[in-house]
Specification:
The chain is an all-alpha fold and 404 residues long. The chain has 19 helices and two strands.
Length: 404
């Protein structure tokens, strides 16, 4: 059970680079955009600027693993929805779209709200009535498939606590230092997308504009604007991937074609025969031709190395930047996945649980105290009283509990 639970909690983080790769592939972006999108996913996962909103490793380790699963599935859904819009057929792909949407809805609600804001960007790529009809049909069937959860949720939402969140208005939260390099490359991508009138980039630009506007205009309440920060960041990385993609092809087209193929010495000799120099210099020029051919061959090899090594070089530099930043994620992963038994105060915690288990059945009341409880492995340690013992637990005032 514990192993299965751990694998499920990390699943969303593991699928994100894969789903972003297929997002690029299914939207028909050329090589190496899908590869750059995967690299962008890795950079996003290691972000340290926020720890609880979801999507990145830290958000997952803080408990937002259902958000991470839903977050990863969104990009696969958008890609398959785009292909479905192209086909305009209610076939097997339509079924996949509906099932993916059902999985997103059943994983997390915030991502569904975000999805409703993102999907119009796909419609702008192909603004036709049939396209709108297909999207509406997918969402209708997806809602019906998840209605066993959605309908009771909507019916009983009045009984849930009204969280009066105070929205973030700090511009620094929107532009942490780690996102700035991607933002610069993203500006290059935005410039080329406008220059080339590339419609495939429309949903990415649409999402960034809408969510940034939403970030500063939403008044708060049940919906906390910070929960949409992960979408702003990941779409900036998708835009940066497009910028890197354009830089790659500019670099590629700037290399002379003859450097990409081995130069034939005999052909070089023939070229020199057409020269107007005296016949007495033919042999010398032939020798010079050989040396030039060797030089061209060397340049060709360097050019090929740079062309085929461009993506690995970017991946290497990205991972190097991550390591230099000394990310918190690896340490937090070790802390989370090594379990309660490996923590320094396990014996005290175990004794406490054994004592509670020895008492007659009753409800154990406890208060949240981070400094006191954290040493057992997590500040939520006492929430597991029903797991270790036969007793029921009751949380105090700080956490939304049955008492409220």
């Amino acid at each position: 059970y514990n192993i299965a639970f751990k694998l499920v909690t990390i699943l969303g983080s593991l699928i994100l680079p894969v789903t972003l790769y297929f997002f690029g592939k299914l939207l028909r972006f050329e090589y190496p955009y899908p590869e750059f999108a995967s690299i962008g996913a890795m950079a996003f996962l290691y972000m340290d600027s926020y720890k609880i909103y979801g999507g990145n490793f830290l958000g997952t380790f803080a408990g937002e693993f259902s958000y991470s699963i839903s977050f990863g599935l969104i990009f696969l859904f958008l890609a398959t929805l785009y292909r479905g819009i192209e086909r305009e057929k209610f076939d097997w792909l339509f079924t996949i779209n509906c099932i993916l949407l059902m999985c997103i809805v059943l994983s997390h609600l915030i991502t569904v709200i975000a999805l409703l804001l993102i999907v119009p960007g796909l419609f702008l790529m192909k603004p036709k009535l049939k396209c709108a009809g297909y999207i509406i049909a997918v969402f209708a069937v997806g809602f019906l498939l998840s209605s066993f959860w959605c309908v009771p949720f909507l019916a009983f939402i009045k009984w849930t606590p009204t969280m009066k969140w105070t929205n973030i208005k700090n511009f620094r939260e929107l532009l942490p230092v780690e996102i700035i390099p991607a933002l610069f490359v993203g500006v290059v991508g935005a410039f080329f997308s406008v220059l080339k009138k590339d419609k495939k980039i429309t949903p990415i630009l649409w999402t960034i504009i809408v969510f940034v506007s939403f970030f500063f205009t939403w008044r708060g309440g049940r919906l906390y604007n910070a929960r949409f920060l992960p979408f702003i960041f990941i779409f900036i990385y998708l835009l940066a991937s497009y910028g890197a993609f354009q830089i790659y092809w500019i670099f590629l087209t700037g290399i002379p074609r003859n450097y990409l193929h081995q130069t034939d010495v005999l052909e070089n000799k023939k070229n020199f025969k057409n020269n107007n120099l005296k016949n007495t210099l033919k042999f010398k020029f032939f020798r010079l031709g050989v040396s030039r051919a060797s030089l061209n061959k060397l340049k060709g090899r360097i050019a090929k190395l740079l062309i085929f090594g461009f993506v690995p070089i970017v991946a290497f530099l990205t991972s190097g930047g991550i390591l230099l930043a000394n990310p918190l994620a690896p340490a937090w992963a070790r802390h989370n996945y090594t379990g309660f038994e490996s923590k320094p105060d396990w014996e005290l915690y175990n004794d406490l649980m054994n004592y509670l288990d020895s008492l007659p059945y009753g409800r154990v009341m406890f208060e949240f105290d981070k400094e006191l409880i954290q040493k057992f492995g997590t500040p939520r340690s006492f929430e597991l009283i029903p797991y270790w013992t036969k007793q029921a637990g009751m949380e105090g005032l700080l956490v939304e509990s049955s008492l409220t």
